[in-house]
Amino acid sequence: MAPIPGSGLAKGLAVTLRTMTRKSVTEQYPDALPDLPPRTRGVIGLFEENCTVCMLCARECPDWCIYIDSHKETVPPAAPGGRERSRNVLDRFAIDFSLCMYCGICIEVCPFDALFWSPEFEYAETDIRELTHERDKLREWMWTVPAPPALDPGAEEPKEIAAARKTAEKLAAAQTEPSDDRAEPGEGQS
């Protein structure tokens, strides 16, 4: 059975007439910024002071879009008679956002909390080669990273903090003990 000529046009006009009187839900994007949910994944920000150049983020990245260069510096001994130590110094940290798939693995594996999600999403470039952002640009996005959510007051204290508190209490107790209770060796012996 052949369709009636013009039935598709009539169906299309019916949809248009039905929706023509409804309020539009289109947001005028550049003029009205969207309300982003908390902890939105936009771009990756770098907190350079925490980076120890361990290279875990670059090694774990499935897209190989993180580029890190560093050099070693010798640090003088902390105490007299100590030995010199060497440490890595960050020369270059770049992320190629044309390759990045925003999986967040680099942020999860960073043991020193040097990488964070920033809700910044307006970073389009006219040339794809400009989507490789160096550490200066990544550092700028740290200012847009929201503060972490507040801790649950009923939550258990982390074991690291509890262990540190116990050690500090033991040291404080040891310092407050009276030292004159102890007799000098050789006193009172005949």
Give an overview of the whole structure.
This protein is α+β, with helices and mostly antiparallel strands and 190 residues long. It is 25% helix and 17% strand. The protein contains 5 helices and 5 strands; from the N terminus they run αβαββαββαα. The protein has helices at 7-20, 56-60, 105-109, 135-140, 159-176; strands at residues 43-46, 66-75, 85-96, 115-118, 132-133. The strands form 2 sheets. It has a 3-stranded antiparallel β-sheet.
Structural class: alpha+beta
Number of helices: 5
Number of strand elements: 5
- Hey, roughly how much beta strand do the residues contain? 15-25%
Residue windows where pLDDT falls under 50 for at least 5 positions: none
Helix content: 25-40%
Largest sheet: 3 strands, antiparallel
- From the spread of the alpha carbons, the general shape counts as elongated
Order of helices and strands: HEHEEHEEHH
Global Rg: 31 Å
- Adjacency order of strands in the biggest sheet: 2-3-5
Rounded to the nearest angstrom, the distance between the terminal CA atoms is: 127 Å
- Average pLDDT: 87
